[in-house]
From TrEMBL:
<protein>
    <recommendedName>
        <fullName>DUF7580 domain-containing protein</fullName>
    </recommendedName>
</protein>
<dbReference type="InterPro" id="IPR056002">
    <property type="entry name" value="DUF7580"/>
</dbReference>
<feature type="domain" description="DUF7580">
    <location>
        <begin position="311"/>
        <end position="473"/>
    </location>
</feature>
<dbReference type="InterPro" id="IPR011009">
    <property type="entry name" value="Kinase-like_dom_sf"/>
</dbReference>
<dbReference type="Pfam" id="PF24476">
    <property type="entry name" value="DUF7580"/>
</dbReference>
Amino acid sequence: MDDVDNLYAGLSFNGEDRKGNIHILILLEQKRYVVWKSAIEHLSSALDNRLHSGLGSLRDALISAGASISSPEPSELNRLLGTLCTAIDSLYGMLHPKESERLEFQWNQEVCEMQDVETLAAIRAASKPQRYKSVGVKVAMRYMARVISQSIRIGGRSRYIDAGCVDIDQKSPKASLDVSGISLIEDRSRTMGHYTGPDGKVRVLIEWKEYDVRWQEDHGTQLKETMDTLVNLLDPEVTPREGVNKERVLNCVGYFHQQHNHRFGFVYPLDSLGTVGDAMSMRLYSCNNVIRMTMPDTSTQSMRPDLGDIFQLAKDLASCLLAFHIAGWFHKNISSHSVLVFAPTAESVHKHVASAVLAGFNDSRPEASGVTLGPRQELKHYYHPLYHAGKEFTQIFDYYSLGLVLLELGLWCPISVLREDHAEIKTQENFRQKLLKSYVPQLGEKMGALYRDAVKFCLNAEEQVKKEQKGRGMHDLFKEKVEEPLCLCSA
């Protein structure tokens, strides 16, 4: 196989003398081959003849490519690439379909995990056939996450908008709910308003990112660059989305600055939510408050969402998180407070949980960035015990937060209520153990074993990874233990 590796090394993109579109596509096929090669030790000796034949075909295709790659004819380059693809397809054809599917996922990861920003930029910009669309979109997301850690401004374009273009509602979202007799949680990190832009006046969600004076003095430039890049990541016109349900994450058009309040406001138009109705009449409900409003023990309005809607929301939340992690971006703020429901009335809110969106990206950051503002007090229940102890944020902490949201959806009870029921438990770690021992098992009866085990993995991911990873990537494990099982849940 060394000769195949050497042939690839002389043909694929290097950013110097080999930086054409064809070199990029050969690089993508090289990564497919690398992933396949890493899996062949699992093949039986009965495949030796097929392996020899398949590798011979690939070697011949690479030699032919070396002789033809300088051709200016697009048809010749397309033929060259097609021959190369066919040779690698035949290697994948030796594997079980399930294994091939797993390797396809690993191939996407292998490409996205390249560290060189210039290479990622070239892949992002290259003209690609349909077969490379998925990996191309993931690379675009990864590229957007990488540039912030290297302080690169995308095209030099600031996403700053004038604060005068934004009218902020005077009434808080909680005050506008008009739900009497129920204790709701007020979240001052977001509000509603209107934005006047190139297409006229639209109803918007505004999410606040606060900072203190020392950020202006020490990290102001870095913070503003973070704002620009985060807006670009959440703008599908700049960063196409792969693995992120377009209806689960709102599009961001920019941010404005309220200097006197030491905060930035991210602006999300609501006209992209086609399933909710008239955007101008929308009211904002956190999923946490929806649960409080519809808990049978505390409310006369006990209509819960359909079980199928909860399963779909859970699956999409897991898929969104996986997609952002593959792109190298941590959410850092997952809670039922950041899962938002837009509905015209409190009486109908349970019908709109199916179209809830994941928000709260105002605290998120790239994996490679050390920038963090630390835990926010009102969301302390959703942070992993190790994050409470001051450990730097990792993707396992996002898994934990997601697991708590899934637990809340399954039990239809806010985590803060469970915490209050066990005030005698003094540490966050002991409370985590209480959830695993007493509450996660209840999900088997209510939501099924697949859902229960997915939640268990999220809440115990650190131990599960140590026990089961065996060299596999973290994304692989999350996909197998959480996303795929949730996809199988139905009602």
